Write a sequence for this structure.
């Protein structure tokens, strides 16, 4: 009965547009005009969640156009699931000196 309750709760959250944190999510913090970590290796199917801890807005914009966030204010977050292997380079489009790479295997 307990597992059915969890499944129903997850289904309702999904239907409501809520995305509960998944144990498989990987966090990238944005602080002091840097992404941390700057180089990340993950498995295909992993969701990366960026959180802006700076007082300035930042974005997450892939060089090849695969993903792009809106401007994130302090404490805002953006998530993207990497379904395909490859090397994904991204920048902050507001501060292009901020660069990072995600390698998906």
């Amino acid at each position: 009965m307990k597992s059915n309750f969890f499944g129903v709760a997850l289904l309702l959250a999904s239907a409501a547009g809520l995305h509960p944190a998944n144990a498989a999510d990987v966090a990238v913090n944005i602080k002091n005009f840097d992404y941390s970590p700057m180089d990340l290796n993950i498995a295909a199917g992993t969701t990366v969640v960026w959180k802006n801890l700076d007082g300035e807005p930042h974005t997450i914009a892939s060089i090849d156009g695969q993903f792009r966030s809106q401007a994130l204010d302090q404490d805002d977050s953006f998530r993207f699931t990497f379904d395909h292997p490859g090397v994904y380079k991204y920048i902050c489009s507001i501060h292009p000196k901020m660069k990072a790479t995600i390698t998906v295997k």
Notes: The longest helix spans residues 2-15. Residues 1-20 have pLDDT under 50 and may be disordered.
